[in-house]
């Protein structure tokens, strides 16, 4: 379906069907007004209506953008295939589409297009990521009125009105409440549904052995995706991961199906098991929609509203069937339907209108200086196991294998296993950031940077999080079954079989004693360390030193 044509050496053009290709070559005569759609904006519903009057949609498949880091091959397949499908759908809907593969960056491609098409003008929606945004701004400077930049409409909250507040340490929870008030989501007469803003205390269960985890939705690669897989293997052979087993949705229709599956079979248990981890179960009851939200196939507003609708419908069904069952108080008699639990629905909503929106505003507020943040001044390489999954620490092996296989690990694995271990081993947070950015299919700088430098490594010194997220094996054991089949003993603090998280955790408290003691939320940790006997402290220090030296030796 895609044909390659070379107008010059630097641009290879992939075009949808011959008729469009013809239009491309005639374009300098009649395509005057174009809409550029960036890689993470694959949803025309988010563009103002007046833009339906443009002559054509222009998009770039940029090899340069895909090479800034060794991005997971599945991430590239997802993004390139989604874009080619999107272009194909636009074309079917009657739009003229220019989709070009280029060695240049997206902005470089647009520059070249404008230089060779003197009548053309381009409307660009602000990219969410900093670097392409700055490049588009430069284009606007260079081409004046021929470039019009319009605000990004893919988020719910107006970032501009929040950046100063967030920069000054305003916490997510208060932001979230305000967005609840503004949107009216899960509000009941000005009060939060059920009386509380947050039901997190019900959302910390570990997974019982007999709980059935539903299969995650998967999609067989069609012809377009197969072509992209071949292109990715050819163009990026040394990138992280593999294209094999690619099963992500690449169209809005299929992304909606993933979300529908979440509403139907996962949302009920999403809340309670949100923080749980289990051997061989990377997805559990998570929604798995972040890759699609982050490239525009789904929108934050529609998923929140659909979740609330499902919640309201389940309440209504319960009431109706209660009435039919004949119970005079409208109770459960003859009714086996279940109301979706409020803690699950509220928990999901908080992730999207709370965390996701807040994270994006933090990015706007803190860029670009935050890129250099390194509160603890850590400089170690990230351990090799992040590339190979080769470790006998079972929790780390499970999480890194899932990243290699799927470009995915869920939130608690990212926070309490992958980032935790990086912090405890003194790895440079910026190296961890790069790894998260290229290894995960849902990573884009605006979302991965705040999560890594703000939330999970405390590199920003506490603007986003009120304390560093570090923990010993105890936490991992409480929330997972990983320790049962691990060669290490999670109960032992020191000694040959002791869980490394245990002594590394206390070693971290010792190492950062002075910085941590100013933090009221971890005073308890400091006091516990201070009370330990000198011999135990020495054992912890020595064993950590040996472990870290071994890790370094293995890395080099
Ligand atoms: P669910 O658990 O089902 O949550 C629902 C949705 O809430 C997610 O799809 C996501 O859109 C949103 N969400 C939840 N938490 C966050 C958060 N902290 N920040 C932003 N959105 C959130 N998320 C990304 O989308 N891209 C990233 O690159 C990314 N990197 C992360 C790195 C670290 C170190 C940590 C701790 C978290 C990161 N997150 C990132 C947030 C979160 O882990 C993922 O959004 C989530 O695991 C995606 O899986 P899911 O769709 O099944 O999410
Ligand atoms: Fe991880 Fe320690 Fe448990 Fe092993 S014992 S799975 S290393 S927490």
Radius of gyration using CA atoms only? 25 Å
The H/E string reads: EEHEEHEHEHEHHEEHHHHHHHHHHHHHHH
Mean pLDDT across the residues is 91
* Strand element count: 9
Shape label:
globular
How far the N terminus sits from the C terminus, by CA atoms, comes to 46 Å
**Share of β-strand residues:** 5-15%
Molecules bound to protein: flavin-adenine dinucleotide, iron/sulfur cluster
Number of helical runs? 21
Query: Helix/strand/pairing class, anyone?
Result: alpha/beta
Low-confidence stretches are 1-29, 326-333
How many strands, which pairing sense, and closed or not: the largest β-sheet? 7 strands, mixed
Strand order of the largest sheet: 1-2-5-4-3-6-7
Helix proportion: 40-55%
Secondary structure layout:
Blueprint: E1 2-6, E2 11-16, H1 17-30, E3 33-36, E4 56-62, H2 73-92, E5 97-102, H3 106-116, E6 121-125, H4 130-143, E7 147-150, H5 163-167, H6 172-183, E8 187-188, E9 191-192, H7 223-235, H8 252-270, H9 290-293, H10 300-324, H11 342-366, H12 385-388, H13 394-406, H14 411-424, H15 429-439, H16 445-456, H17 473-479, H18 500-511, H19 513-516, H20 523-531, H21 534-555
Parallel strand pairs: 3-4, 3-6, 4-5, 6-7
Antiparallel strand pairs: 1-2, 2-5, 8-9
Helix pairs in contact: 2-7, 3-4, 6-11, 8-11, 10-11, 11-16, 13-14, 15-16, 18-21
Residues 393-395, 473, 476-477, 482-483, 486, 488, 490, 499-501 line the site of iron/sulfur cluster (SF4).
């Amino acid at each position: 379906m895609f044909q390659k044509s070379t107008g010059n050496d630097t641009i290879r053009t992939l075009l949808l069907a011959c008729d469009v290709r013809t239009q491309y070559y005639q374009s300098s005569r009649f395509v005057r007004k174009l809409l550029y759609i960036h890689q993470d904006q694959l949803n025309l519903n988010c563009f103002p209506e007046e833009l339906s009057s443009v002559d054509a949609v222009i998009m770039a498949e940029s090899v340069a953008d895909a090479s800034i880091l060794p991005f997971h091959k599945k991430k590239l397949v997802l993004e390139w295939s989604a874009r080619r499908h999107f272009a194909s759908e636009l074309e079917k809907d009657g739009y003229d589409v220019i989709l070009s593969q280029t060695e240049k960056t997206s902005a470089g491609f647009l520059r070249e297009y404008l230089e060779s098409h003197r009548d053309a003008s381009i409307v660009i929606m602000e990219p969410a990521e900093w670097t392409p945004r700055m490049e588009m701004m430069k284009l606007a400077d260079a081409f004046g009125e021929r470039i019009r930049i319009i605000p990004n409409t893919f988020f719910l909250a107006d970032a501009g009105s929040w950046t100063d507040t967030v920069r000054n340490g305003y916490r997510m929870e208060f932001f979230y409440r305000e967005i609840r008030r503004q949107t009216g989501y899960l509000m009941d007469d000005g009060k939060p549904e059920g009386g509380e803003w947050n039901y997190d205390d019900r959302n910390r269960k570990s997974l019982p052995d007999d709980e059935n985890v539903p299969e995650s939705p998967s999609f067989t690669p069609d012809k377009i995706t197969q072509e992209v897989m071949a292109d990715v293997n050819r163009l990026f052979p040394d990138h992280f991961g593999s294209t094999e087993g690619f099963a992500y949705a690449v169209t809005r229709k299929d992304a909606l199906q993933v979300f529908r599956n979440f509403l139907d079979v996962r949302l009920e248990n999403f809340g309670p098991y949100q923080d749980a981890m289990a051997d061989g179960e990377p997805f559990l009851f998570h929604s798995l929609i972040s890759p699609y939200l982050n490239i525009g196939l789904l929108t934050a507003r529609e998923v929140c509203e659909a979740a609330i609708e499902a919640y309201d419908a389940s309440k209504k069904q319960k009431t109706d069937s209660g009435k039919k069952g004949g119970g005079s108080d409208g109770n459960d008699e003859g009714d086996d339907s279940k109301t979706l639990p409020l803690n699950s629905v509220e928990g999901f909503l908080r992730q999207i209108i709370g965390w996701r929106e807040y994270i994006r505003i933090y990015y706007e507020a803190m860029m670009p200086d935050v890129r250099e943040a390194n509160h603890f001044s850590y400089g170690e390489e990230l351990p090799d196991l992040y590339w190979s999954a080769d470790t006998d620490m079972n929790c780390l092996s499970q999480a890194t294998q899932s990243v290699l296989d799927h470009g995915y690990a869920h939130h608690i694995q990212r926070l309490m296993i992958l980032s935790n271990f990086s912090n405890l081993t003194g790895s440079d947070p910026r190296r961890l950031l790069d790894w998260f950015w290229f290894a995960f299919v849902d990573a884009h700088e605006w979302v991965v940077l705040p999560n890594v430098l703000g939330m999970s490594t405390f590199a920003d010194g506490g603007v986003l999080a009120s304390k560093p997220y570090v923990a010993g094996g105890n936490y991992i054991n409480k929330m997972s079954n990983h320790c049962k089949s691990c060669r290490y003993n999670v109960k032992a603090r020191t000694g040959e079989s002791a869980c490394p998280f245990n002594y590394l955790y206390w070693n971290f408290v010792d190492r950062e004693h002075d910085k941590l003691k100013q933090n009221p939320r971890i005073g308890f940790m400091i006091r516990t360390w201070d009370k330990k006997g000198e011999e135990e402290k020495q054992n912890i220090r020595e064993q950590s030193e040996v472990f870290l030296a071994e890790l370094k030796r293995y890395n080099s």
